[in-house]
Amino acid sequence: MTSSRLVRALPVAIAAVLALAGGQAVAAPAPDAAARVVTYDASGAAEFKDAVTKGAAVWNQSVKNVQLKPVTSGQRANLRVVADNGWPRAQVTALGSGTIYFGRQAVDEGHNTVRIASHEMGHILGLPDVKPGPCSSLMSGASAGTSCTNANPNAAEKAEVEDAFALLESSAATTAAYKD
């Protein structure tokens, strides 16, 4: 069989295998489907409030299935951000919920505050650390070094968050802690 015939036959073969195996195709979410809103409270973020706002903006520009919004008066936040003197870390209570401890230790060592905020928000959005890792990977965190200021998730990180929130209703809640 020539390669062009093989390429044309491949989709038919895949469909047949799925049918025989009892596979089921799943439709992608509608393009106009509403995004899940994760509210955040940065009132305890002290000098890092601006970095938290910028980190949320990075995620809001990067993904469509979830959006990070500041909590409004009388509303309970999904995500709480607190400044402390330790190393930055996230305590995840469920996908889209938890507490970020914005540790001053990493800032004192020279790490970029917006990268820290965006990285820790990545944990709240379901991403694990990728260490060691290159600067192009947001979830490489501090392993990329103090010269790394990239606060943007790469394509794989964006896709993982999009998938997690697209499947949110069918997944069970998990609890995890990430100490960066």
Descriptors:
5 helices; disordered N terminus; alpha/beta; 34% helix; 180 residues; Collagenase (Catalytic Domain)
Structure description:
This protein is α/β, with parallel strands linked by helices and 180 residues long. The protein has a single domain (36-179), classed as Collagenase (Catalytic Domain) (3-Layer(aba) Sandwich), CATH 3.40.390. Helix content is 34%, strand content 21%. It has helices at residues 3-20, 49-62, 104-108, 113-124, 155-166, and strands spanning 36-44, 66-70, 79-84, 89-94, 97-103, 176-179. The chain has a 6-stranded mixed sheet. Helix 2 (49-62) crosses helix 4. The longest helix is centred in the first third of the chain and has 18 residues, at 3-20. The radius of gyration is 19 Å and the shape is globular. It starts with a helix and ends with a strand.
Report the CATH topology name.
Collagenase (Catalytic Domain)
- How many strands, which pairing sense, and closed or not: the largest β-sheet? 6 strands, mixed
Assigned CATH superfamily: Collagenase (Catalytic Domain)
CATH architecture: 3-Layer(aba) Sandwich
Q: Spans of 5+ residues with little confidence (pLDDT < 50)?
A: 1-32, 170-175
CATH class category: Alpha Beta
Helix content: 25-40%
Distance between the termini: 52 Å
Number of discrete domains: 1
Rg, nearest Å: 19 Å
Q: What's the order of the H and E elements?
A: HEHEEEEHHHE
Pfam families: Peptidase_M7
Binding site for Zn(2+): 119, 123, 129
Disulfide bonds: 135-148
Enzyme class: hydrolase
